[in-house]
Amino acid sequence: MRQVYMDYSATTPVKKEVLDAMIPYFTEHFGNPSSLYTYGLEAKDAITKARGQLAHLIGADPEEVYFTGSGSEADNWTLFGVTDKLKNKGNHIITTKIEHHAILHSCEFLQKHGVDVTYVGVNPDGTVKIDEIEKAITDKTVLISVMLINNEVGTIQPVKEIAELAHKHGILFHTDAVQALGNTPINVHEMGIDLMSMSAHKIYGPKGVGALYMKKGVNASNYLHGGAQESGHRASTENLAGIVGFGKAAELAEKNLESHIKNCSSLRNYLIEQIQKKIPDTIVNGTMEHRHPGNANITFEYIEGESILLMLDHEGISVSTGSACSSKSLKPSHVLTALGVPVEKIHGTIRFTVGDFTTKEDIDYVVETLAKIVGRLREISSVDEKKGW
Amino acid sequence: MALYNDTVMDHFMNPRNVGEIENPDGKGVYGSPVCGDMMQITIKVDEKTDVITDVKFKTFGCGSAIASSSMATEMIIGKTVDQALAVTNKQIVEELGGLPPVKLHCSVLADHAIKCAIYDYAQKHGKTYKGLEGFDPEADDDDEQAEGCSGPSCDKK
Prior knowledge:
The complex is a heterodimer.
Chain A: E1 4-5, H1 16-22, H2 24-27, H3 38-58, E2 65-68, H4 71-85, E3 92-96, H5 101-111, E4 116-120, H6 130-136, E5 141-145, H7 159-168, E6 172-176, H8 188-191, E7 195-199, E8 210-214, H9 229-232, H10 240-278, E9 282-284, E10 295-300, H11 305-314, E11 317-318, E12 320-321, H12 334-339, H13 343-346, E13 349-353, H14 360-380
Parallel strand pairs in A: 1-11, 3-4, 3-5, 5-6, 6-7
Antiparallel strand pairs in A: 2-8, 7-8, 9-10, 10-13, 12-13
Chain B: H1 6-13, E1 26-32, E2 37-46, E3 51-60, H2 63-76, H3 81-85, H4 89-95, H5 110-125
Antiparallel strand pairs in B: 1-2, 2-3
């Protein structure tokens, strides 16, 4: 059976060049980077090289990049580390309603420990309400955190403008760039970013490696304790092969950035155009203007997303859904809720993300299969365009 | 490994008795799209023998909602109204060989939908059944639903 992976925002396959770069660091050059003999030194050199590759991709100085175990860890580190460091200045964070749970659940935890959090809303097109951020600022605000690209609807947020606003009030600005890295040009210095979370497995690198960019002088308190790794900022023996893979993936992402964006957005636009042409009663969620190049988030009216997902999987196609029925919490997507999409329509929402290995033939197969599946599920459904919702 | 077992997948991929009976003897709708699942059931009943001769369903919902709807229709075709009223969600899930625990409370609507349809039949034909005693079509007993989702009751539409 034909297999079509169309969930690149969930994770990406490791590219061969990346894997090839990693392998020797499992077997031959396996040393502990903290060791002072040759094995250790060559491991340390490999990490230095990777740090340089990632720093180059984002326009940072290498010493501003700290490797972590994941993008989620970088988010946690930022929130816990900044609020601790600046606890004498204030105890207020501003973020948005559409952040990843790594931000939202960390904020909920901090709220139980005396930190105030303001969750700013978004416009129906998915862009954050900057005026609400400005209104929420108090003299106790220590951090504003707004994701660069949303993981569900792909909206690219105007972070440069938000960073300027933060700095005008002497507030640090953090962005979760896990979905953005390699999918939009990033220059942390030009964009005024103080802290930024990243992850390797969204850019054709391995799982289990992330990074935090922390501008010189920011010095958030440590999150992991117990060793002097990462210039004394993050304890844990380094994930050597993983970091090497992240570095290589970053190098490739930089080299391919322009063609990646061009190819993905053209395939994505073709996908949306074909779906709208061949399947009635569909709605594209989020703006098409400033959007992740591979993201298409579409509501199929009158049917439910988990059913669509299962039937697509049966035909070898992998996608994800915002439906409550597919989430362990049984809650519909908080992002689509924040955009104002009615709950019954959130249930019928599918996120497709194309990537570097997607072909036009894949899209033709997906649309053809999808048309049959949507038709079949609408025959089964107790809701239709005549009965309405 | 898979989310659902083979029986559930079979009833989901090839649901039995999909559709809507024209001029049904009884019709019930239970659940709501806001909650993510809504089942409609139409039945034909032989008035003399009280046997359910035909059942058709339509369901908006996830895999387990569609599979349990399909299974439920198979379980009540050819049964008397009393026997159909005795069918519980637990039995439907057992016949399906089990469902993931998280799905048990939200997606199995069939026993209520069947009761709604039989209630409709009983109302129209002036019948009373032991199994309908204490059954309130407006009842709101579904407290396990997703947040912001008030429990559904029989829907007359």
